[in-house]
Amino acid sequence: MSDPVPPRAEIVVDLAAVRHNVRILKDLVNVDGPVALMVVVKADGYGHGMAEVAAAARDAGADWLGVATIEEALALRAAGDSGPLLCWLSAPGDDFAAAVAAGIEVTAYSLAELEEIAAVGAARVQLKVDTGLSRGGAPRAEWSDLFARASLLERQGRITVTGIWSHLAASDEPEHPANDAQEAAFRDALALAAEAGLDPDVAHLANSAAAVLRPSSHFDMVRCGIAAYGLDPAPGVSPLLGLRPAMTVRARLLLSKEVRAGDGVSYGHTWHAERDTSVGVVPVGYAEGVPRAAGNTAAVWVGDSRRPVRGRVCMDQLVIELHGELPPPGTEVVLFGPGDAGEPTAQEWADAVGTISYEIVTRIGGRFVRRHVDGDEPGGTAP
Length: 383
Ligand SMILES: *Cc1c(COP(=O)(O)O)cnc(C)c1O
What we know:
Lyase, Ornithine Decarboxylase, Chain A, domain 1; TIM Barrel; alpha/beta; nine-stranded mixed β-sheet; eight-stranded parallel β-sheet; 2 domains; binds pyridoxal-5'-phosphate
């Protein structure tokens, strides 16, 4: 029997890598006493597959899962997850009743949101305070009112306040003054909440970068997204942790051909061959989330070497230089992966196009086929 034809373009996610990363993070934050680990699986698990990553994270000891929206949380329940689960991004009119019925903890940013949640009855609510990000959460001027109202609602048996939390603005820059200021503000908020009679189970502030770089920010729990996927939360700053990127993105070469010195390549001819050379067409483009800005900046891996992206990335395809070689159609082209063989990483793609690895992995998708493997399974990414 012949081997099945591999897909045109695929995203391979190694769940063994996710488990490995989750165990590393859990050990890291539990050095000085018990700290719970929430693994953040919003946005389809940063492009890695929410349900699959969630199950792998739970297997490896994630105490909590976190998502942005109620819809994401309900999808996790539908996929069979039943553990502690928090969501934190609601719009007025969202289905808080469905969340509460499914045992999902919800977050209130404001008095209005708290009232909407309390109206459902029996909600487990966490309160988000803005300590300086100036994004979601109650501003300092509203903390007292929010805590007083939450405390009253709790005494009336209408809600249970299970957590108080906030989010950092510059945790990937450990020297940034916002870190100290936000941590101090968070301690103020916790003190005010205690004065109001609240005694929540968990106070939490840290994302991946703070989990790794700032032990004083750990409180009762850390919320790790990017590091669980094996990507560096603070490039150039993080210590070596042994995290393993879980995602490999690859495609099959459509064709290769010779071009002559001076020939222009792809739309607008933003690149001309400097000498006689060869190019290959890779059938993925910005419709798949390959950044258009990768034109003339990023590289891929073919055979045993890096090949530069030449000219503009198109909607469905991109062109690479093959330096005179003419590999046959179907040859594997790795856009990025863990980097073990020398292939670029998501971080290198991010650097090439001026963004962060989060955006690279989260946006990749479109017509790519995604599949999950487990370590040394055939097609897995384990060395
Ligand atoms: C996305 C998110 C996180 C995870 O951040 P990472 O930097 O990926 O670890 C944590 N907390 C909140 C509120 C988030 O929205």
